[in-house]
Amino acid sequence: MTQHYYPTEHQGKPATIMMGWDRPLQGFFMVIEDGQNRGKYIYSNLDDPELIQFGGLPPCLDPFLAKLEALGLSVPDVMLDAIELDAALNEGNRRVEYNRDGSVKPQENKSAGR
């Protein structure tokens, strides 16, 4: 699966929106994690009754865009475009982190020095 992380605030508190493409299950996902309580979710696609017909993984981002709007949140267009491209290319095993301004954080080279 691909994972795209965007830091934000929900009701004045830190939160992280993670969205992406699940290659094995062929659907999109989104969770919004409470930034103060690790492991506590403001929203999870797997708990959304409106997504039961899709097994929690809809074939498009529209349900998540509606949920973000309902929560007063948004993500950068560049992030949405990248997630849609992940689906079109059937990407997997990709992690992207964004800054608050929508720019992509540089990836750490974990193999450096080996």
Describe it.
- Residues 95-114 are annotated as: Disordered.
- This is HipA N-terminal subdomain 1 domain-containing protein.
- It comes from Ralstonia pickettii (Burkholderia pickettii).
- The protein starts with a strand and ends in a 17-residue tail after the last strand.
- It is α+β, with helices and mostly antiparallel strands and 114 residues long.
- The radius of gyration is 14 Å and the shape is globular.
- It has helices spanning 62-70, 77-89; strands at 2-10, 13-22, 27-34, 41-44, 94-97.
- The protein has one domain.
- It has a 5-stranded mixed β-sheet.
- 19% of the residues lie in helices and 31% in strands.
The helix content is 10-25%
Q: How would the global form be characterised?
A: globular
> Spans with pLDDT under 50 lasting ≥5 residues?
none
Distance between the termini: 27 Å
Q: Largest sheet, described in full?
A: 5 strands, mixed
Radius of gyration: 14 Å
> DSSP strand (E) fraction?
25-35%
Count of DSSP H/I helices:
2
Q: What is the strand arrangement across the widest sheet?
A: 4-3-2-1-5
Order of helices and strands: EEEEHHE
Strand runs, count: 5
Strand-pairing-aware structural class: alpha+beta
What is the domain tally?
1
Arithmetic mean of pLDDT? 94
